[in-house]
Amino acid sequence: MKTLIALLALALPAFSAEKPNIVVIMADDLGYGDLSCYGATTFETPNIDRLAASGQRFTSGYCSASTCTPTRVSLLTGTYAFRIKNSGIAPPNGPAIIRPGTVTLPSILKEAGYATAVIGKWHLGLGDEKPDWNGDLKPGPLEIGFDHCFLLPTTNDRVPQVYVEDHRVLNLDPADPLWVGNKNPSPELPTGKSHRSTLRMDWTHGHNGTIHNGISRIGFYTGGKEARFRDEDLADKWIEKSNEFIIANKDKPFFLFHASHDLHVPRMPHERFQGKSGTGLRGDAILELDWCVGEIMKTLDAQDLTENTLIVFCSDNGPVLDDGYADGAISELGDHKPAGIFTGGKYTVTEGGTRTPFITSWPGKIPAGTSEEIVCTIDLAASFAEMTGVSLPDDACRDSFPILPALLGQKGAKGRENLLQQDNGSQGKDSAFGLRSGDWKLIRHKGGWGTNDAKKHLKPTKKSNKPYTLYNLTEDPSEENDISGDNKDKTQEMIQLLNEILAAERTRP
Question: Hey, which CATH number is domain 418-503, 3.30.1360.70, 3.30.70.2210, 3.30.1120.10, 3.40.50.1450?
């Protein structure tokens, strides 16, 4: 019997006993066409290109939603965000969306013996009813599996502009308490409306609350002067903290979730990148993102960790140009196509909203090449559980598929058969949805499309009077021609599959 068990153990896939370091780099608002390894020609992204050349570059890599909060919820929980309460775009004073006790990607890896950290943008809420900005900010990342965090608590177009380290606002002076709210507390507080002429970056819609660093934001805050950061320094600070975590944990397996903010508004990359892309601040921010990836790769090389580190590069949703600020994203775009050939972008359930750059690299383990398999950020939880030997409870990671062989680029490995694509998640099951199954794509036209500036500057989403439209992505990747009328049986089959997914408690095999 012992001999048989030993032989069976030898027959298991080699990755079943592997515990490489894992670095997930999630870009923000990065489109399929925004990198030179995905077809951009206006500027180059050499570091991300090098990462792609060393591993698998996926042409059907997805995030699970077309806005940041629901995608991040799904990444960390392995569950479609529409199943999770309050998983729409988190407000500045929003409570923690992922509750303590939830099985998460970091808690899975912590069970496997990993040191875990999230550094960068959070935007998943903090606290119970709301954040206690002058006290302990919990529950938060440390209550759902992370050992350490260094965060931008919301997004940088939402107040407050402070760092959160573990449970506290960094450098907060108790004599100057931080207040955050939805209404202007005083007519004396300068805002984007009252002091518009003083702004160094004008707003186009919505971003006209408290002014910080010459830029007005969503919401209002006072105090915390010593804790506030300068927009231009965000990326540098997160690379500094990411490198510190890597070096401090180099002798044991670690999981780093590096959550970039570079492309998200307000786009204000460091001065050394400004004007370098030829496409305005948005393109400059892409160059800064590429630098960040290069710096993490340099640190892994310097610490002799590259050969034992699996890197996943992805994005939280597709591109957007005018997202509230007049920053040249449209006027200086030139011939650059942020979503490539795909229709729509951020906020939409067309391919431009959720099909994004997706790269996996692990020298010596992942072969160099291009994969057409369907993979999604929601699948990292189940796949890494499989890799590290952690068993998932039946009610955990309910929509995460264990597709590790596909992520590792193994010959003949299959990715997902189908994938649900949702918008901002705020409407739950009543929202618009996309459903890809093989070559087929169904769109349920319900709720707001949120096309924003896609009308002219990204390929526009076609609105429809029909409740459902159908496309063949092999023949029509841009989703320009609705073929539901000529394919009624397939349309009904896809509608039934969509309804089954929405009604189910889980889809994980």
Answer: 3.30.1120.10
